[in-house]
Write a structure and sequence with these properties.
By secondary structure, the chain is an alpha/beta fold. The protein is built from 17 helices and 11 strands. The protein is globular, with a radius of gyration of 21 Å.
Length: 490
Amino acid sequence: METELPFLTAHEIQARRKAGSLTSEALVTALLERVQLLNPTLNCFLGVDAEHALEQARASDERLRNQQTLGVLDGIPVALKNNMAIEGQPLTCASRILEHFIPPYSATVVDKLRAAGAIVWGRLNMDEFAMGSSNETSYFGPARNPWDSTRSPGGSSGGSAAAVAAGMSPLTLGSDTGGSIRQPASFCGVYGLKPTYGRVSRYGLVAFASSLDQIGPFARSVDDLAVLLSLISGVDPKDSSSFPTDVPDYSAALKEADSYCPCIGVPKEYFDYPMDDAVLQPIRDAIDFYQRKGCEIREISLPNSSLAVPTYYILATAEASSNLARFDGIRYTHRSESAQDVMEVYFKSRGEGFGEEVKRRIILGTFALSSGYHDAYYLKAQQVRTLIRNDFNSAFEGVDLVLTPTAPTPAFRLSEQCTDPLTMYLNDIFTIPANLAGLPALSVPCGFTPENLPVAFQLIAPHFEESRLLLAAKRFESNHDIHATHPRLG
């Protein structure tokens, strides 16, 4: 296998295919070999349908020979976080309770990918039911960071980020409830985008917190991110929360990146939070870069951001306790073999099937919704959520984008924080506000620590202004080669 082949972008792959120097079948074969080589160490993939992937690749090559390609991503492999339904393939959410569940339908994003000729080919590791920030709550063991396999790839979409960083898939999809795309993108040194809530259909995504969850893309380049986002976006009659608005041609918009000079707001509250100097300096350098290029940099205030973490963990756990009630051992989930009556079926099946973090969040959410506490906790959290949204609305009256750190630290070592849930929850302190406000946000790799661990900054835009994120990220990418640096692997 060519040394650089695993790290080609989707656009580079298509250029080689058109030139006749690479076929989709050869690419998929190489990636399957790479997964076989690296997955025993990195544990990114929970499963691969190899024969079906090769069938899709051969069909794409035949279309190319007949000049009938279906689009830019025709013949490009895209692996999915294992909380998105693929008809006929296991949908586990990295949980014992769904270990043997096979969905009878596919998610809307899967249908869109296949209609465009993309190869849907793998199921990626994740925190159980997307609850975690390190990928350590997975029933199937943690995914590992390609830059240092003793460290976390982030969570909950850790497998999706690590697979792109390791050259195991050129594109992946993850889901983001409180930072689950952007934090692992930061830890693994790739691009990760959470779209505006309602931009991408959630049909076929197993719900964690329905008012917060959003599917989004991972990629090694802004151009790839733009084309994948365009493909999966749009209103869906199967999802009442998807918003009926036009989807821009994000790739066409990137042609203006070299002259794009947004006014960027830097919230003082985010930089008052204690951070590693090795993380802070590359982010300050990125701010200086934009200023040198003529962008106006303004200090802004988002005063209620300090309340985002407690607000999120009330709302998200409350919604999780409701959404996960369907996994009861009665219908299609794990059923305890020792249960003697219907009550034991419920209690023992859920007790055996769910991991500790999922149980913790169900209990917290049930308490927040319980009689006598609903107004004090859940209702109050909804009110604070409105304050956080209003802070962003006020800020965007004077700036085009907001720039913050993505995570307060680089990738931490596995097991380093898993015994302290509160410390683990604070990993999402910079990413949660965008979810509460429903805003689009993008993690942009911007440097490395002295230990050669990736660092990233986050860009946040007004609702449905993903183009601004991509333009600003493209301008940074065009002047830096950080994205072209890859971990040394077998």
